[in-house]
């Protein structure tokens, strides 16, 4: 692994880079750029297989070397590199502004989304972006133009990290907009009514939309590591709460684990790609997990 890649693995270091575009390029170029393939044969540059020539096949695809060996006409078939429409759906609610180790979930989500947009556009895919809190916010229609990345970054940088969370409303809004098959990529801390969210995700999947969920969590949300009387600030309009974490830690962990397990189980049952991501883990790992999933 090269020294620049080691430098950019640390999320705290990545966030100090000059902007979303710089972060995206650094992360994607440090990962393997995978390509998805269509099962349909087309005319891309990658050879798939031979078939015997039949009237109507294009003469330009005849393999003359094969003809010289076997005295029969064979036509090269190629894999078709499809254009994917990816809809990046970003949680911009108040809870996303939490960060216990210098990197907030919002910052992590912005950089992850920018990296995915950079990767997808570089592959020639079309990318859309939408932000939401308790209602749908800015929506950018999909485009595969290279200049479209600037528009995506502007949408991401508009994320304020305010308001309550309503993932289902945002997904419903997107479902009403999408007419062609595509892929919805939800990036959120999933602090919402899980059954309601997963019901809509399953409906989208049944409509032959691919659904990918990046479930972002801060390490402190998993462990509740605080000691002594602590004031917990309500980030989405709730009143502040003074409590001793030792009194609630066990019950809190049980509830959080049950919440995460429920989401993961529903995703497995609904054929939905699910990635649980800690904001303490390398951003590059989340991107690589996504790429490996695309290759599969």
SSE topology string = HHHEHEEHEEHHEHEHEEHEH
CATH class of the largest domain: Alpha Beta
Largest sheet: 6 strands, mixed
Instruction: Compute the separation of the termini in Å.
Output: 24 Å
Low-confidence stretches: 1-8, 32-48
* Strands, total number: 10
What share of the residues lie within helices? Answer: 40-55%
State the fourth-level CATH superfamily of the largest domain: von Willebrand factor, type A domain
Number of helices: 11
Radius of gyration: 23 Å
Describe the model.
By secondary structure, this protein is α/β, with parallel strands linked by helices. It folds into two domains: 3-36 and 83-295, von Willebrand factor, type A domain (Rossmann fold, 3-Layer(aba) Sandwich), CATH 3.40.50; 41-79, no CATH class. It has helices spanning 3-9, 11-14, 20-28, 64-70, 105-122, 148-157, 167-177, 194-206, 219-223, 245-269, 283-295; strands spanning 41-52, 74-79, 85-91, 126-132, 136-143, 183-188, 210-217, 230-232, 241-243, 273-278. The strands form three sheets. It has a six-stranded mixed sheet, with helices on both faces. It is elongated.
């Amino acid at each position: 692994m090269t020294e620049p890649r080691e430098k950019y693995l640390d999320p705290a270091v990545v966030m100090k880079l000059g902007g979303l575009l710089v972060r995206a390029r650094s992360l994607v170029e440090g990962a393997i750029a995978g390509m998805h393939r269509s099962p349909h044969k087309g005319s891309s540059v990658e050879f798939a297989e031979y078939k015997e020539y039949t009237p109507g096949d294009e003469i330009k695809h005849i393999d003359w070397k094969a003809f010289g060996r076997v005295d029969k006409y064979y036509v090269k078939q190629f894999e078709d590199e499809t254009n994917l429409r990816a809809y990046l759906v970003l949680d911009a609610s108040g809870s996303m502004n939490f960060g216990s180790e210098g990197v907030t979930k919002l910052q992590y989500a912005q950089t992850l989304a920018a990296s995915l947009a950079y990767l997808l556009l570089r592959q020639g895919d079309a990318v859309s972006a939408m932000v939401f809190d308790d209602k749908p916010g800015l929506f950018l229609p999909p485009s595969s133009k290279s200049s479209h990345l600037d528009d995506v970054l502007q949408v991401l940088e508009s994320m304020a990290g305010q308001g309550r969370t309503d993932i289902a409303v945002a997904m419903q809004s997107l479902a009403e907009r999408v007419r062609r098959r595509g892929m919805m990529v939800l990036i959120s801390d999933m602090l919402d009514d899980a059954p309601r969210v997963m019901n809509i995700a399953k409906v989208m999947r049944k409509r032959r939309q691919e659904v990918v969920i990046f479930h972002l969590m801060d390490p402190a949300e998993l462990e509740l590591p605080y000691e002594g009387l602590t004031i917990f600030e309500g980030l989405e309009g709730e009143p502040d709460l003074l409590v001793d974490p030792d009194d609630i830690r066990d019950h809190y962990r049980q509830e959080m684990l049950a919440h995460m397990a429920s989401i993961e189980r529903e995703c497995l049952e609904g054929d939905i790609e699910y990635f649980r991501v800690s904001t303490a883990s390398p951003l590059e790992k989340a991107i690589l997990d996504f790429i490996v999933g695309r290759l599969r």
